[in-house]
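Input.
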Amino acid sequence: MLSKEQRKELNTNFYTGLKDYLKATKSSNGRRINWLNYPSDVKDIYVRILVDGNSAKLVFDIQTKNASIRAIIWEQMLELKVVLERCMTVETVWLENETNEFGNSISRIMWKLDGVSLYNSGQTDIIYDFLKNRLIEFDLFYQEFKEILITL
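Output.
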């Protein structure tokens, strides 16, 4: 069992390594990008990397407090579903009504790699490759269609 300090150190090392791994990768628009803090340019929409002891995930979270606005954004994403899924090379999971770790209602689109652990250093390269590929695929989609979400 790992102590709180050990888990914190592993998390820090993992995400620092991932940032370094992605540093040379540019966005599809040719610009440098902070992949760990992906700029959605839309209030209350977040692209997050979540890695724990069981899986690695890239998630697109719609976290507006107003359920009606969240429903409108969700509906727009469903309109783009075919295009988004065509860009992604792994299964896309659509979760319209979820509760995040803070108890807030969210809608989430997710790409997940099961059976990997942040705490297994032998799997770091597998996780980094998975996340890098998903981020690049998502970025190709998002750079083309983000204006639709921005104007909602």
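The mean pLDDT is 96.
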